[in-house]
Records
---
Amino acid sequence: MVNLDDKNAILKLQGGDAVLKSIDALPQQLQQSFTESLQVKFPDKYRNVKNIVVCGMGGSRFTPLIVKELFKEEISLPYLINDDYNLPGFVDENTLVILSSYSGTTEEVIRCGKKAQTKGALLAGLAAGDGVIDFLKSANAPFYVFDPKYNPSGQPRIGSGYMIGGHLGLLLNLGILKIEKLLINKTIEELPSLLRNFTIDTKTEENPAKKLALQLQQRYPYYVVSEFLTGVGNAIANQTNETAKSISSFRIIPELNHHLMEGLKFPQKHGELAVFVLFFSRFYSESVQKRFQITKEVIEQNKIKTVWIELNGENKIEQTFYLMGLGSYMTMYLSALYEQDPAVIPYVDYFKKKLKEMG
């Protein structure tokens, strides 16, 4: 098993330091994309839309979902995340369809963009380039194109700061998100200090991300979140799959209290593998905080392991970014424990290749 305090061994597994540099650079990704996306100009007609549909997949889906859930009470219009080939029936000339694709080549996103165009919807988007940007240019639609210079890994899930900052900037510029820009900037500035204990040079005994990775090794983790952290729970499950090549799920309180707790008895082998990671925030509503405590009791009564993590941060935004960082570092350390390269996604690549061959 790889020693998580052996930096050279981890870098050898990863074939260099591109992944590590990318994870360390979350604050820079956020700052670059937030600052640049605020400069995107929108025609006046964009300020009269009645609803918003964001089309995205994978790392370009969980990022707008993080924004949606974090600012659920501050986003002034219906805001839907669309993650397949088809658009909702309500999309019309009063809808803003935002195409979200880190690579710019996502098949589902481009197809939805074309369908939105035929419905007369307003279009916008963000990507590093290629097909999505070309399509938006041809439609004379506003867009944010970024240079992912702080993500040498090239993986969208490891460069999630670009899509988070980009979506935030676009929504603020449109006047759809009602929050002070200074608050976002202040949080980004303080993020390095929030994440400093996760870095590779911090020894395991003082490193919460390394400790969590060790607790999850050879287990099936269920990440339990609620309210404003729902999107980050989804993100960490995604990163566990792609980065660590490991199975995972995320669950939401209070929804899980209405069914999941009765499904913990069988199969018995599941109980030997499962571990529930409860991400607890003092900013959850009082009702949800009570539910977290009782949910932990029920899980343990079924003889299933739990890990209780109380989040740092002085407000909801800080805690969201803190948990994003924890998830990125932890899944990278878990990939090292499994002796996997987090920068490669062979089965996703194989799938795309076969799909292309089928025409």
Note: The radius of gyration is 20 Å.
---
Amino acid sequence: MDFGYGNGVDGVFKFISNAEVLAVFFPKFGQSVVVDIRPKDGVAPLVRVVPMARSIADRLRTIKRMRPDLPRPQDIIAVPWVGYVEAMKTSGLWDKVVARIEESGFPDAVTAAETAFAELVRLERRELAQLIMGEQYETLWARPTS
């Protein structure tokens, strides 16, 4: 399976293995999961679901506000995910993210990652329910009735 990334997510995996700050964003429902594993004594990695940013510059400002004790990140890996949230697990992407968090040595951060994943699934399901029920969506065209 290619999950919308050509021959697979292997290229994305390489970036994740080196990233200190990662944002996976979901255009379908306007949310992101931000993972900041920059090391600092006694400071656990940040794993949080936040609204999707309009730009990388906006995301960097948000991260600086969430982690004021750390310097502004030098770079950030932003991964658009257009598939279902659960596909992050079946593709192996989420396992790579969690492995990076585990390397930090903060078990609470791993728990935060699983909580964030469950929140993403919940938000996606809510968006799909709204689509099915017609909430926040309008029909662009309808089949003529006879």
Note: The first strand starts at residue 21 and ends at 26.
